[in-house]
């Protein structure tokens, strides 16, 4: 298992880096769209009708992609206060409980996000002419990445590969 994890690490690291960069691009794009909306409303006195819908969709993408990378890097909430007083075995147990809770939440994101996508596919966003179901795609993709990164964390922990810098993507 250890060798398999080490073999797929470059791929998962690249995937996390791509998700992080995509989230950053989405944040910048949303900022530009909102700037255009404010400029149009207050300077041109003609606010673009599409800007709010696009901004909300971009926001969903960068939030869910960024959150999944945060899971991989260990930046999400956990049992930090107890970690300082727990023995090593207790830390492993608490981290695993935290990861299992995240895994359950991410699975629910994918399942219910898929149901929402299917249920709203026939409706159209009036200002964009696109399916409302597309707005739930970030929930599904973010949930899938969160599942992948959480399973990786658990497997690394039980293969003896976990350390403070194991998930860093900044290299």
Automatic annotation (TrEMBL):
Tripartite ATP-independent periplasmic transporters DctQ component domain location: 30-159
Q: Where are the transmembrane segments?
A: 20-38, 50-71, 92-112, 124-149
Q: Which GO terms describe its cellular component?
A: plasma membrane
Matches recorded under InterPro entries: DctQ (IPR055348), TRAP_DctQ (IPR007387)
Please state where this protein is localized. Answer: Cell inner membrane
Which UniProt keywords are present, listed alphabetically?
Answer: Cell inner membrane, Cell membrane, Membrane, Transmembrane, Transmembrane helix, Transport
Q: Name one GO molecular function term.
A: transmembrane transporter activity
Whether Disulfide bond counts among this entry's keywords is no
**Highest rank taxon of the organism:** Bacteria
Predominant location category: membrane
Q: How does it sit in the membrane?
A: Multi-pass membrane protein
Q: Which GO terms describe its biological process?
A: C4-dicarboxylate transport
Query: What function does this protein fulfil?
Result: Part of the tripartite ATP-independent periplasmic (TRAP) transport system.
- Summary of subunit composition and partner proteins: The complex comprises the extracytoplasmic solute receptor protein and the two transmembrane proteins.
Stated family: Belongs to the TRAP transporter small permease family.
Q: What is this protein called?
A: TRAP transporter small permease protein
